[in-house]
Amino acid sequence: MVNRQKMVDLLKQMTLEEKIAQLLQLAAPFYDGADSDGVITGPMKELGITEDTVRQAGSALGLAGAEKIKHIQQTHLKNNRLGIPLLFMADIIHGFKTIFPIPLAIGCSWDLELAEKSAEVAAKEAAVSGVHVTFAPMVDLVRDPRWGRVMESTGEDPYLNSMFARAFVRGFQGDDLTNDVHRVAACVKHFAAYGLAEGGRDYNTVDLSERQLREYYLPAYKAALDEGCEMVMTSFNTVDSIPATANRKLMRNLLRDEWGFDGVLISDWAAIKELIPHGVAANEEEAAYKAIQAGVDIEMMTSTYVHHMPDLIASGKVDEALIDEAVLRVLLLKEKLGLFDNPLRGADPEVEREVVFSQEHRSISREMAAKSCVLLKNEGGVLPLQRSSRIALIGPFAKNNDILGNWSWTGVKDDAVRLDQALSAKISDSLVAIAEGSSIELMTEEQYSEALSAAEQADVIVLALGEHSDMSGEGGCRADIKLPQAQLELIARLKQLDKPIVAVLFNGRPLDLHGVYDQVDGLLEAWYPGSEGGAAIAELLYGDVNPSGRLTMSFPYSVGQVPVYYNQFNTGRPHDPKDVDARYVSRYLDAPNAPLLPFGYGLSYTSFVYGELVLSEDIMTVERPLHVEVMVTNTGERSGEEVVQLYVRDIAGDVVRPLKELKHFAKISLEPGESRRVTFTITEEDLRYHHADLQFTSDPGEFAVFVGSNSRDVMERRFHFVQ
Hints:
The structure is a single chain. With about 725 residues, the protein is of the alpha/beta class. Helices cover about 30% and strands about 20% of the residues. The protein contains 21 helices and 27 strands. The two termini are about 45 Å apart. Mean pLDDT is about 95; it is low at about 35-40. It catalyses: Hydrolysis of terminal, non-reducing beta-D-glucosyl residues with release of beta-D-glucose. One of its GO terms (molecular function) is hydrolase activity.
């Protein structure tokens, strides 16, 4: 149990300078040089801080390794007057050293239990290596694949993102954060609406109505906090023309007062000082003032609090009580993690050697990678591959170990299972020829000649294509989201051989697939699949595992459609795709409105047939929920998993409602010939939305319910809700 009074008493003993230093977070270079005498070296000059300030700082980020962190913590405690331990935080986004698929890929698994397990594994490896807090989960809702950070989200749907947010928090924190030293505190980010950055450009402006904010962008953050998430990180963007880090309405009024969050609020890297170029602070002093007034507890990697808070307090502009409440929250988190009694917590070099990148953890990563891949095309049943077929593995990712993703941090690329290694381990070397064909962005005639020679001898060409990991992630935004031209040319040239072509994509975003989808016979979206990626893909290609992933972010037909997402509004002049000559409707003249591949889409090596959609009755009330049933049958020759999805539409609302909204789903496994009745229950809560006055309530009236294998291919029935 957290001893709050103990922390209150400790706070009373602290000087103002010590309190303010607790609100400062410094990066690894300040501590990597900590020696046994307590001398700390680092870029102190850049921040204008002293060695004493470093010694009093409350937290550090970007450090890991049990021996290193034990030494730094012991050195820190020896030099800290009151013996207040450091908090060690890090970006453990989708794995520590055992790297799991990127979060967007994990979302495509639709497997909440396995997602929770992936976070549990990441937490254990991080904790035994000395980390206390992870800057995850990232739950920003994403609709624009130009934004590089879509890879960190689980997709475009607020309900599904909320479910994954809860799963990740459970996995990271467990049931007893104080005593379970193999767990870490979670920090949900980026609060709020960072995924709506204009033009898909990182750090850019966000402007949306409060209804849009509450309806789509806030639910996943709230779900994480309802699950007990200990920390929140501010976003870089503006919300209602105010940067989040200075946004009192967002942080004080909504997060603190309305939602009741009393945990730690931390800025993103340098975000407080960035209030100056944003144009809401004239200088560092004003930036510090606005951030503390908004409720930001910890300042990451700038020193405006340290430099200016004493004068702000002395002048009466800032009440010292604001500092006290921020420091108390930081101390309480340290107490909750048990750091005052056990400052080394889970850091254990022996256990670290035993569990980090263990075979058990790699097996879980491999399972998640297999479940995260999405089969997008399988014309003529080209997949699974026959073990007797001669394969030409060609492309920049044939031998590439850059499959961990941009946020893998402590992951080691050389440890990743490459696709060529996995295929060679699965079939005879005489059946597989390997050639690069092109680099990611360039193709030489020598490369192509080698690829052509391999392809001419093959029965099936397997192309391993994609983006370099730096082409997505933070700062990895792209206006053109096609594959680089060199790879498109490689496909086009090999297509002339008139042989079956299977493409495997390694990327961090939905792509514009022109020149790919229309040219290949089979297409497997592998994302950045993590440490065991090559092994998982080989299992999928040869049918040892049946693909079960389903998209959680739509693939656009063209980048010109972006943002394109399933839960769109209808408009007053909706376009009927069958009416190709219609003009004065909401449409493009040169492209369809619909994405190439919709939310929820994915193929299997077997086939599933849906029976009649049955409603328990046509009238629903608060006291009498609606039961929706459908029989699903595996009509193929392989066992497989299907994701049965239920959507609802409010036909006439107080404000415009989306054409479809995901409300429930069920992932089921069926043997060949097996049938299963899937039952969903729709309650009054499923029908609620934010009205014109922002009240979150439901309306009586007519509703449509849809059930199917994705957001496009569904059966529909109608019912009435009566209050």
